Amino acid sequence: MKTASVKLKRQPMHESEESCSNNNSEEDPPGKRSISDDLEEEPPSKIATTRYRFFGDIPDSLWNDWKWQFRNRITRVEQLAQFIPLSTEEQAQLKLVTMRYPLAVTPYYLSLINPDDPDDPIRKQAIPSPMEMTMGSVGLEDPLDEKRDTVVPGLVHRYPDRVLLVLTDICPMLCRHCTRKREWRNGGWVRSPAEITAMLDYISQHKAIRDIIISGGDPLTLSTRHLEYIISRIRKIKHVEIIRIGTRFPVVLPQRIDNELCSMLAKYGPIWLNTHFNHVREITPEAAAACGRLLRSGVPVNNQSVLLRGINDSVEAQTKLCHGLLKIKVRPYYLFQCDEVQGTEHLRTPVEAGIKIIEGMRGHTSGLAIPTFVIDLPQGGGKVPLQPNYILAQTEGELVLRNYEERVFHYRNPTTLARPEPPAEVLCPAGSATASLPQEATANVG
Ligand code: SF4
Known about the structure:
By secondary structure, the chain is an alpha/beta fold. Helix content is 31%, strand content 15%.
């Protein structure tokens, strides 16, 4: 394992992504911009992460430049082996995996990994596992059947009032549990101007669409200028009420959430941002600062985590994660059952594990800290929330319920029948109906 003297060189993830980066190269010049303003406002943490062990010779001005981070992602197993102890045999296995499912991790995210712990929860999200191949035939390529609901290239219209806009398949990190793993081998595309126009035309023509989710890949891999061009065009469509952005940048490359991006987003609200923290150790001072900048720009931040075996599949891990999120004012929104995607089976948990986690949290922490546990159904069935069952029995007019302490309560359940019929005299024709009502009632009539 190398130490702080390691120098990073640009390593394209694979050819197509490199060419895609080139597509943006005029618009997205690589990290020349100083972000010293950000540094003055929120200095990066000096916590003893592996940053200083591995990247100690990288000055803050580069480390905090998201384009430098992006260009210097670790994308080859030989590179990875400079940071994480990997035997020759392990390296050979991982090379096979990355031929099907590539590797890409930012120096920032790599610095959160404990390189000496093979079971590190951060490592498991970023570093390939041979099980991606050995269990690779289990599951589906496109479990949510997004292709079926694609109305024009890049636009998924499943629910009546909202659409998903997939702008690119490029991500700052390739998360090993990704639902769109199938896209990785086509990697490196960005929607063309003609495709964007086709998507926006469709939205303009469908007046029921009030909510647009901009996703990817990760849409924040586009330059702020490019994003503004798209968002400003969306904002011209009168019936679109809200825009949501799905991004993992606050977690894997928080430096991307810079003042330039936040000022742009502030102009086009209401914009909501959904991000994807899975473990409390991802909530670093840098990530907290990124979320703070978004919040100060009027962009509420929600978290959608995925339940992952050996990463966050315990009450303790989820409670710590959700408490950490609330401390940085990010709402724990969804906890997803990991989709049945090929190459992720080793990370999936039984559904019961998620229900037990919610049960273990309920009553022991505030409802604000408890996400909704959902399964995104295959074949485009949509999201179904799953809850522990607190109803022990039900008779007409009564429920028998247990609480979080397993105490049993009887609860009178009001009838669902129509309201009781009023006395006959109230049914008299208008004008005489109030004649027999008591004095205090007549005072409020009319
Ligand atoms: S950031 Fe999201 S879309 Fe990209 S690899 Fe990770 S989970 Fe998949």
